[in-house]
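Risk mitigation, structural track. In case the binding assays with magnesium ion fail to produce interpretable data, a predicted complex structure has been prepared as a fallback.
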Amino acid sequence: MDEPSRLERYVTELFAVEDPILAKIRARHAAENLPPINVSPEEGKLLHLLLLSIQANRVLEIGSLGGYSGVWLARALPPTGKLITIEKDPHHASIAREAFKAAGLEARVELIEGSAIELLPTLSSGFDAVFIDADKEPLPKYFDWGMRLLRRGGLLLCDNAFFHGAALDQNDRSGSALGVRAFNELAANDPRLVATIIPVRDGLVVGLKTRDGA
Ligand code: SAH
Ligand code: DHB
Ligand code: MG
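Fallback model:
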């Protein structure tokens, strides 16, 4: 991931200081050679705040990696709340499980190992928020699943809205760029959503599902 800018560092140092548990999770990431594509501290803080603002209880994450964003998300839930997080890579999944344990969040987090497209149909709807942060090509499908699984008043959240600028580059016809662009267009135009992109890190789509329906 790109180095944080001076402005991002300013925000992080003021508002998103990591406690030793989060710092340790990131150190473990590096030691285990996981790709450095976890959310940044200020994006983690924003996700945390967004969940608190709707008093979220039941949250879905697609793409756990080493559990860094998951800890920010799960910490916003009450002790009886539940984060379900999906991860297809067994190595990532085992590091993430360790992270949730180290953070004392085992009871609040259920990691399901497997491919998102196979697992999404097994979940029941009524989520307060869905955070999408996995592979980019299937993003239009994740959009549909997110909308189906969210309750009215729930938040649709999706990382990498800019995808390092690829979203803006009409000449980039890669599967990932097409997926990101399609997701953003769906979020912008779906009458059930009020949405925007917050330009934090690589862009975060934030949509409030204000209406039900197909
Ligand atoms: N949310 C994490 C970062 C996720 S990185 C954080 O901020 O800390 C993306 C993750 O999605 C990787 O661990 C990758 O293995 C996983 N992934 C990619 N494609 C997937 C798929 N189709 N199903 C489930 N997980 C997937
Ligand atoms: C990349 C970054 C991400 O945050 C992500 O979810 C997937 C890929 C990347 O930099 O390639
Ligand atoms: Mg991401």
